[in-house]
Amino acid sequence: MGGVGPGVVLAVACGLGLEIVNIVLLAREGQTLGKKIVGVRVVRQADGGGAGFVGTWLLRAFVPGLLAAIPLLGDPFMLVNVLFIFGEERRCLHDLIAGTKVVRA
Asked: Cα dist. 88→51, 57, 59, 68, 76 in Å?
């Protein structure tokens, strides 16, 4: 077996770089590159202010990601998470967990 080729290393490095850029953008501006393109941002539900690192990434992405990785719980959790968008407030479960909402930028 030959080991990992340079293409794999480059792909992983680019993926990590993009993730870091998106985390920084979320923490500072409430937007990832995709949210900027679409014209939306993440804000605190309570006052519409910036949700910061904890609200935008830790609680909205990292914690749900951990829950999604739990066998037998992860798939149902992720399904319920996205189905919450059809509720009256139009907020996914990860927004309720983080106390955030998505608004037009």
From this structure: 22, 24, 21, 24, 21
Domain count, the chain: 1
Question: What are residue 44's DSSP bridge partners?
Answer: 100
Distance, in Å, from the CA atom of 71 to the CA atom of 61, rounded to the nearest integer, reads 18
Amino acid identity, residue 101? K
Please check whether residue 74 is in contact with residue 67, taking contact to mean a CB–CB distance below 8 angstroms.
Answer: yes
pTM: 0.85
Tokens of residue 10, six digits: 């480059």
In which domain, by residue range, is 23 found?
6-104
- The answer to whether residue 100 is domain-embedded is yes
Q: What is the pLDDT along the chain (105 residues), one digit of tens a residue?
A: 567 899 999 999 999 999 999 999 999 999 999 999 999 999 999 999 999 999 999 999 999 999 999 999 999 999 999 999 999 999 999 999 999 999 999
Q: Measured between alpha carbons, how far is 57 from 41 in angstroms, rounded to an integer?
A: 13
Element (H, E) at 18: helix 6-29
